[in-house]
Design brief:
Blueprint (H helix, E strand, L loop, with lengths): L1 H13 L2 H53 L10 H13 L3 H17 L3 H12 L2 H8 L5 H13 L6 H5 L7 H15 L16 H11 L11 H4 L4 H13 L6 H6 L6 H14 L2 H9 L6 H13 L6 H6 L6 H15 L5 H20 L1
Helix pairs in contact: 2-3, 2-4, 4-5, 6-7, 7-9, 9-10, 12-14, 14-16, 16-18, 18-19
């Protein structure tokens, strides 16, 4: 064995430098791999132990919560038995790990039940002082901590934290702004949209979709006046307001939407045309036809899509002007509209004067 070790040392000593470097590197990497394997195994053992501890505590806290919910005496606001549980959970909440387990257990029960019991869980969340830990997170300098705090307050429907939450409405991190918007709409519904009055950052398309999904869960809600948002200098607020107008049929905002037909943003103009088309508004169509040639090709296509649903015989001259339009979508729309008018028995007598010209024009389309 000694001779073998001596042989290896001698071999290494008199080997070329490149061989020595390769052997040394191999030894170092082997030691690193062994060290990492030991460390990962240690981490795995700790995680398993932590999961076992969490499972034990969760089972215990679930029992405590069930006992709390059913130990009221119907006389006192808080029975002696309930107060003991409150004090116990308050003391446990001082530990970060135990606090997370208590909160997750409360949320689990809250999601599974509703009514008075759900209200009792929310009340317990406040009585144990857990709400204070969430509120304290809003003062953190770390954006992820702030976001988690706001999300937790929304989950337990803590409306009293509104003033502290709204302070972060223009936070530089989108994740924080998103949690604030969710908090406001979940807890205050349409009234929560008042944050649009002071929003300076852009409301992303995905955020708009999520807000609309939350709002549509509520029935028989009073829809606020959206005209102030249609006049906002924030284009994303205007875009969101147009979606509200379309979904909730805010026809009374029609005049403000017509004003948006000359908005500086093409996207806003197109969205406005879509909403007015949804309303079936003829007045706006007259305006759009009057300055049709000054509009972008994207707008022109949408205008003709609008005319597929809103049309009359008096539109025929305008339609014939564009029957050979260079844009394929416009040509298809014109053909559809003219065919629709031609097949309308009520309009047959009005259509005769242009029928020959129409046939000639449509034959040109087929030839092209």
């Amino acid at each position: 064995m000694v001779n073998l070790f001596y042989y290896i040392v001698e071999y290494f000593k008199y080997s070329p430098k490149i061989i020595q470097l390769l052997w040394a590197s191999s030894v170092v990497f082997t030691l690193i791999i062994i060290g990492l394997s030991i460390y990962l195994n240690h981490i795995r053992i700790r995680l398993r132990a932590k999961e076992r501890i969490k499972a034990v505590y969760q089972k215990k806290y679930e029992a405590d919560l069930i006992e709390y919910l059913y130990s009221g005496n119907g006389v006192d606001e808080i029975s002696k038995e309930q107060q003991i549980i409150i004090d116990h959970l308050s003391n446990c909440a001082k530990s970060s790990l135990k606090r997370k387990i208590i909160i997750s257990t409360l949320l689990k029960l809250k999601d599974e039940i509703s009514g008075e019991i759900a209200d009792a869980i929310q009340k317990l969340y406040c009585q144990t002082g857990l709400v204070n830990y969430a509120s304290y997170k809003l003062k953190s300098k770390k954006w992820d901590v702030i976001a988690k705090g706001i999300k937790e307050l929304a989950q337990f429907e803590i409306k009293d934290a509104l003033n502290d939450v709204i302070e972060h409405i223009d936070h530089p991190k989108r994740e924080v702004r998103k949690e604030i918007q969710m908090y406001l709409v979940k807890l205050f519904r349409f009234e929560g949209l008042e944050f649009l009055n002071i929003l300076t950052n852009q409301l992303s398309e995905w955020d708009q979709i999520q807000l609309l999904e939350i709002l549509q869960k509520f029935e028989n809600q009073h829809i606020p006046d959206i005209t102030k948002w249609l006049e906002s200098s924030n284009n994303s607020v205007v875009s969101f307001s147009l979606k509200l107008a379309k979904i909730y049929n805010q026809y009374e905002a029609k005049d403000h939407i017509i004003n948006l037909l000359n908005h500086s943003s093409q996207e806003i103009r197109i969205e406005s045309i879509n909403v007015l088309s949804h309303f079936g508004d003829i007045d706006s169509l007259i305006i759009l036809k009057s300055d049709f040639n000054q509009r972008s090709i994207e707008e022109q296509v949408i205008i003709f899509k609008m005319m597929e649903d809103i049309n009359e015989v008096s539109d025929i001259p305008f339609l014939l002007e564009h029957i050979n339009n260079m844009n394929f979508d416009i040509k298809v729309s014109v053909t559809k509209i003219l065919k629709k008018l031609k097949n309308s028995e009520a309009n047959d007598s009005r259509f005769i004067t242009t029928d020959i010209e129409y046939s000639e024009k449509t034959s040109l389309i087929k030839a092209s």
